[in-house]
Amino acid sequence: MKQNRLLRSLWIVLFALAIPVMVIRCSKSSSSNNTTGGTTQGNTISMANMSFSVTTLTVASGTTVTWTNTDNTTHTVTADDAGFDSGDIAPGATFSHKFTAAGTFPYHCKYHSMMVAKVIAN
Q1: Which of 2, 27, 28, 50 is the most exposed, having the fewest neighbouring CB atoms within 10 Å of its CB?
Q2: E-strand stretches of the chain
Q3: Residue 52, φ and ψ in degrees, nearest 5
């Protein structure tokens, strides 16, 4: 009985230690036009490894940004203020949105809370 409790406690501790590592690993993204040094092709952002390839993309007003799902699961591109929503983007599919006004537009994936990013239109 004591051995079972010890084993259970060990699993709880290991699980508790693994969660922050998974969150940090899954939330790592980079920015092409800002400080973190990632890359994009034009104004295309990839969704891979449960993250957006660019966490902050700065573009001119009037620019169309395209998101490509290169992951093996469905994602969304959903504006925090509900200004745009891709709906489900299947693996291999894309979604585009034109930023007609200046501003900062944070967005996320409805299904994966660690997937957050923003577009800044000047």
Answers
A1: 2
A2: 44-48, 51-52, 56-59, 63-69, 78-79, 94-99, 103-108, 116-121
A3: -85, 140
Residue 64 has φ and ψ, to the nearest 5°, of: -95, 130
Domain range enclosing 78: 2-121
Give tens-digit pLDDT for 27-36. 333 333 333 3
DSSP conformational letter for 92: T
Q: Which tokens sit at 86?
A: 């891709």
**Total structural domains within the chain:** 1
Query: Cα separation of 73 and 120, whole Å?
Result: 27
Cα→Cα distances 59→64, 82, 122, Å: 9, 20, 6
Give the pLDDT confidence of 4-45 residue by residue, as tens digits: 665 566 456 544 555 444 433 443 333 333 333 333 456 899
CATH number of residue 86's parent domain: 2.60.40.420
Classify residue 58 as exposed, middle or buried by CB count within 10 Å of its CB (0-12, 13-18, 19+). middle
Q: Are 76 and 110 in contact (CB under 8 A)?
A: yes
